[in-house]
């Protein structure tokens, strides 16, 4: 998946499942899939339907997809922001998450 496709996917979720004028996924599904469900690691937050949801202790809430080697799609609905990153951080796959968390706070 290209970084442009990753960003489009993030905006698809930010737009609550809409692509142009078409509703491809229900708003209910988007909402359900990005709500905190299962606490994983304190430094990451919660996991829910293939999305990680930031720790509730953070000032702003955002959700993100995390792939092998530091591939990230971060969505901050409160600021209408999508950040897509590709990295080669196999030795520290959380490094981009730490940078994104700092940036989004």
List keywords for this structure.
105 residues; alpha+beta; Beta-lactamase
Beta strand count: 8
Strand content: 25-35%
Compute the CA-based radius of gyration.
13 Å
- Average predicted confidence as pLDDT: 83
* Helix coverage percent: 25-40%
CATH superfamily: DD-peptidase/beta-lactamase superfamily
Number of helices: 3
The appropriate CATH architecture is: 3-Layer(aba) Sandwich
Runs with pLDDT <50, length 5+? none
- Euclidean distance between termini CA atoms: 27 Å
**Briefly, what CATH class?**
Alpha Beta
How would you spell out the order of helices and strands? HEEHEEEEEEH
CATH-defined topology? Beta-lactamase
Strand order of the largest sheet: 3-4-5-6-7-8
Structural class: alpha+beta
Principal-axis shape equals globular
Biggest β-sheet strands, sense, barrel: 6 strands, antiparallel
The quaternary organization reads as single chain
Protein name: Beta-lactamase-related domain-containing protein
Domain Beta-lactamase-related: 2-91
Description:
This protein has about 100 residues and is of the alpha+beta class. The chain has a single domain, classed as 3-Layer(aba) Sandwich (Beta-lactamase). About 30% of the residues lie in helices and about 25% in strands. The chain is built from 3 helices and 8 strands, in the order H-E-E-H-E-E-E-E-E-E-H. The strands form 2 sheets. The chain has a 6-stranded antiparallel β-sheet, with helices on both faces. The protein is globular and about 40 Å long. The N and C termini lie far apart (about 25 Å). About 25% of the residues are buried. The mean pLDDT is about 85.
């Amino acid at each position: 998946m290209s970084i442009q496709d990753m960003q489009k996917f993030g905006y698809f979720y930010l737009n609550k499942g809409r692509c142009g004028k078409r509703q491809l996924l229900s708003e209910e599904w988007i909402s359900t899939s990005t709500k905190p469900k299962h606490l994983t690691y304190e430094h990451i937050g919660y996991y829910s339907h293939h999305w990680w949801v930031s720790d509730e202790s953070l000032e702003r809430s955002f959700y993100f997809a995390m792939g092998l080697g530091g591939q990230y799609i971060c969505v901050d609905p409160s600021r209408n922001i999508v950040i897509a990153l590709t990295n080669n951080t196999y030795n520290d796959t959380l490094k981009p998450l730490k940078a994104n968390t700092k940036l989004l706070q």
